[in-house]
Design a protein that fits this description.
Radius of gyration: 27 Å
Order of helices and strands: HEEHEHEHHEH
Distance between the termini: 90 Å
Strand order of the largest sheet: 1-2-5
Organism: Frankliniella fusca
Structural class: alpha/beta
Shape: elongated
Keywords: Transferase
GO molecular function, one term: transferase activity
Low-confidence stretches: none
Number of helices: 6
Protein name: UDP-N-acetylglucosamine--N-acetylmuramyl-(Pentapeptide) pyrophosphoryl-undecaprenol N-acetylglucosamine transferase
């Protein structure tokens, strides 16, 4: 037991010497390793399809895009194309009046382009901000509740899994991950019209 204690004291002295060396080296070192642990922003554009009562979520990170008209228009275009594949020729959308996302020339131009290209009818109704509650709002609320329960979400894949399981009944939300190279440039459509 005495030998073990002597070894412990020897290791203690060694640790102090190494600590002094680290301090001396650190004062001479010009480079410093720093880490900024910050969560990446995730964006979720939701469409609730009333006819089959299914929620669709289009997810992307701040690395892949912003929350602007190109992103919203691209996601709407993808949704419309899926509906066309199902034989749907008329769509009615409703949303708030957020001009940066929903109520702008780029999204309108995408609607016109899709209507002409696919020979379909598209109607978009803008509800008065602050005076409505849509099914998409309900989806967001359910997802936020699940996120509060889970508390720690570190990757985009974990967000995808959380959203898929947020709805407990037989119709889970459909999640579509969108990457940077998939965005349409809706400004080109506007430039063609002017």
């Amino acid at each position: 037991m005495v030998a073990g204690y002597a070894e412990h004291l020897q290791n203690q002295k060694l640790v102090k010497v190494l600590k002094k060396q680290d301090i001396a080296t650190a004062s001479e070192t010009k480079g410093v390793a720093c880490f900024d642990l910050q969560k990446i922003s995730m964006y979720n554009f939701t469409v609730f399809d009333l006819r089959p009562s299914k929620g669709h979520c289009y997810l992307w990170t701040e690395v892949d895009g912003a929350k602007g008209d190109d992103e919203i228009g691209t996601n709407l275009s993808n949704f419309i194309e899926k509906k066309i594949d199902e034989g749907i020729t008329e769509s009615v959308f409703s949303s708030d009046s957020h001009s940066g996302q929903n109520r702008n020339r780029m999204v309108f131009s995408m609607y016109v382009h899709a209507s002409i290209k696919y020979n379909i009818k598209i109607t978009h109704r803008f509800v008065e901000s602050g005076h409505s509650y849509s099914e998409a709002d309900g989806m967001h609320g359910r997802i936020e509740t699940e996120a509060k329960i889970k508390q720690e979400i570190f990757t985009p894949e974990e967000w995808t899994d959380l959203i898929k399981t947020a709805k407990q009944d037989k119709k889970p939300y459909i999640v579509n991950s969108v990457k940077n190279e998939e965005w349409l440039n809706l400004h080109v459509l506007v430039d063609k019209e002017t």
